[in-house]
Structure formats: C-alpha cells, structure tokens
Specification:
The protein has 420 residues and is an alpha+beta fold. It contains 16 helices and 16 strands. It has an eight-stranded mixed β-sheet, with helices on both faces. Strands 13-12-14-15-16 form a five-stranded mixed β-sheet, sandwiched between helices. A three-stranded antiparallel β-sheet has the order 2-4-3. Strand 3 and strand 4 form a beta hairpin.
C-alpha cells in the first residue's frame, strides 16, 4: 500500500465512478456548444490580485479560503478559487472583445480550490463547468444562460432542482439600498467580524448561513424595494423570457451571491436532496468586473455549475446515467499465434470506431472471460490454435452465451453487423 494519500478535502476520480463525472461534464457543456460558446482553458493559478480585485477583498474566499504561494521570483499567486475572473482576464489579454461582434461567448471546465472545512458536497478541490457571455448588456443573454443550464440538468434526468432568481440592482440604485441595509444591520446584535463585514459589503451579511443571524434578518429591507426603474424593467424582461421558454423559477428577494462582482440578475440552482449544501450551481450578471481588473467597460453574465454537487443530486434522485461500456468487443487469445492475430483484429476494430479491449498477460480462458464480463462488452472473440488452423474465431454473445464460428477474413464486417 502507498505511503501517500490524497490531501485532506480532495478526491481522486477513478474508474468506473469517473465515467459519471465525464458524462455530467459532457451533458452540461453540450447545450453551450450548440449555442455558440467556445471552449477556453486558463491556468490553475493566477496573480492573487486578480481575485482580490474581482472576487472582493472582504469575501471569505479571498480572506480565508485561497491557497496562495510566492514564487522564487517573488510573485504572489493563488490557486484559482473560481472561474469567472480567470476567463475574463484571458479574454481581455487575448483581445477577444476587439476581434468582432460582441458578446464573446465562452465555456470552460476544470478544477478549483478553496481552503474550507471538508464535508459532503464541499471540498478543497472541486470541479465545475462554467459559461460566460462577455461584452453585452441584454436580458436575453441572462435568460439564455439560465435556460441552457436548465436544459443541461434535465438532459441528465434531474427533476427536483429549483431555480432561484433575484436582482441586485446596479451602481445607480444599489448605493441607496446599501445605506438602508447598513443602518438596519447596525441595530442588530451581531459579532464584531459580521459588523465589520457589514461596513465593507452589507449584502454578504444576508448570505450568512448561521441561524442566529438569519433570525435577526427577517425584517431586513429588501433590495427589490430600492431598484431603479431601469433595473426593474431589465429584471422583468429576464423573467418574461424565462417564463416564455417554459422554465420554472422562484423569485427570491433575499438571494445574494458571495462574490462582490455581481450586479442586476443573480440566480442559483438548488437541490433539496443535498441537505445544507443545497446549491448545485449559480451565477449572474457582473457588469463592472472588467473595469475592476483593468479592462474596458464590458457588461457580462455567466454561471458555474458544480460537477461534484450535480453527481450528488443525481444520486439523491436515484438517477442512473446511460454510460456506455468500456468495450463493445473483448478479445480472448489462447496461445501466441492467436495473440498476434487477435491483437491485429482489435487494432482494426478501434480504427473502425468500435471500442475494443484485449486480454493481456497470457491468461487462461476462465480468467480472460471474467475480464470480458467486467468490461461490459457485448461480444467476445475467442481463438486458439485449432480455430486459426480452420481460419475462424469464435464470437460469443455475452448476454445470451450463444457462440458461433466466424471466418477471420470477414470478421470485422460480421462484428459490425452484430453490433448494429
């Protein structure tokens, strides 16, 4: 047994369970690819300041949860705790916003890192698929992304999730609400750290999960009561477009996001079968983020969906994904000559687009057939010296057990026909 183990709060993805993660990533990204989103991949670490400016210096992510390091050259880096700031930085660096019509539509998939107390559904290393539409202020983009996420979840077979929707206002109306909320919070019995947070970003106090804090927030002023006419109209258009698409959602006037860059539309996907870690994804509009990190004004919107949480949601609903077997054909050679012939057959099958595997290591028939069963293959091809002398191999239907002799010369075509 190895002396080493995966670091605390992380996990290894290994077969066959890893196939479920791949299927979830594929299902989430499929609607995006059909809607004009191109793939982007960013480094696993970035300049600390990218997240301090974009995510927010007062957020728990920046103050408590980032894994940071200093290079030999003295640069301060952080393992990426989220994807939006990195993707926007990459788009700006590559001048994608100058290359043609806006918005720039991008999707990504990868691992992210936060130093948190490990628990089910919350890890220090986690996987997300995300999407960003950069450079356009349009309610249809906000609605598009919500609808695409809904389509992705439903394609996986998920049904018991809810979409929560709210508006956080903009630079015109949020300052008025901020002042009203701060006045309210100063009158509560809150600890010193929470009061300090209220002075920096009071909206984040609304997102506090502690029961004693939430109890005091029952009568807190609601942002929707302070929205300017432009934000009200924008939000109503988002709601109307989602409704017209047949996507159900719930208005949640207390919904806020834990990152400082969000404006106007904000949304969250929750699954009630996951206990306290009910959020499976979320996002919203972030019209000022580009300027925060040194770019031009580029109003944008996006989301990130947790692959880990989505897998847990599927398990909570008892949804079994239709994952193809590792192999459709499994070759079992008995003897050196059969090994050479069947290895050539397997190579041809793979070149023809048929998933095929091989019994390696000179196993006997019984052990080799156990491997064929484990692979999930529909067909096994078996050959020994006598078979080859007659110019045939034995093709076995794994489910029925029926076995027939097939000429080596026409084997590929015969296998294609049986698998059709």
């Amino acid at each position: 047994m190895s002396t080493f183990k995966a670091p605390k709060g992380t996990y290894d993805l290994i077969p066959p369970f890893s196939a479920k993660y791949l299927a979830v990533r594929e299902a989430i990204s499929a609607p995006l690819r059909k809607a004009g989103y191109g793939y982007v991949e960013t480094p696993g670490f970035e300049d600390v300041e990218l997240f301090a400016r974009g995510v927010g210096e007062s957020t728990d992510i920046v103050t408590k949860e980032m894994f940071t390091l200093t290079t030999k050259g003295g640069a301060n880096l952080a393992l990426r705790p989220e994807g939006t700031a990195s993707v926007l930085r990459a788009a700006l660096e590559a001048n994608l916003h100058k290359a043609g019509g806006l918005p720039v539509k991008l999707w990504y998939s990868g691992s992210y890192y936060r130093y948190e107390r490990p628990q089910k559904g919350r890890y220090r290393h986690f996987s997300q698929v995300g999407a960003e539409a950069i450079g356009a202020e349009d309610p249809a983009l906000d609605a598009e992304l919500i609808i695409l996420a809904d389509q992705a979840y439903r394609s996986l077979g998920l049904r018991n999730f809810r979409i929560l929707l709210n508006s956080l206002g903009d630079k015109e109306c949020r300052p008025v609400y901020r002042e009203a909320l701060q006045t309210f919070l100063r009158g509560l019995d809150l600890d010193e750290e929470t009061l300090r947070r209220a002075e920096i970003n009071p909206l984040r106090v609304l997102d506090d999960k502690r029961a004693d804090v939430q109890k005091q927030l029952v009568d807190a002023p609601l942002l929707r009561e302070y929205l300017c006419e432009a934000c009200k109209a924008y939000h109503e258009e988002v709601r109307a477009l989602i409704t017209a698409a047949g996507v159900a959602f719930e208005d949640d006037p207390k919904l806020v996001r834990g990152l400082d860059y969000y404006t106007r539309t904000t949304f969250e996907f929750v699954h009630d079968g996951l206990g306290s870690q009910s959020a499976v994804g979320g996002g919203g509009r972030y019209d000022g983020l580009s300027e925060m990190i040194g770019g031009p004004a580029l109003p944008s919107v996006g989301w990130a969906l947790g692959v880990d949480r989505t897998v847990l949601a599927l398990e909570a609903e008892g949804v079994e994904l239709d994952i193809p077997p590792v192999a459709e054909v499994y070759a079992v050679p008995l003897g050196d000559e059969a090994k050479r012939v069947l290895f050539g057959v397997v190579t041809q099958l793979r070149a023809a687009g048929i998933a095929a595997d091989f019994s390696y290591g000179g196993k006997g028939l019984k052990a080799a057939m156990k491997g064929a069963n484990r692979s999930g293959a529909r067909l096994a091809i078996i050959a020994g010296e006598r078979d080859l002398a007659e110019g045939v191999v034995q093709v076995k239907e794994m489910e029925s057990g029926e076995q027939t002799a097939v000429a080596v010369d026409g084997l590929i075509e015969s296998l294609r026909a049986k698998l059709a």
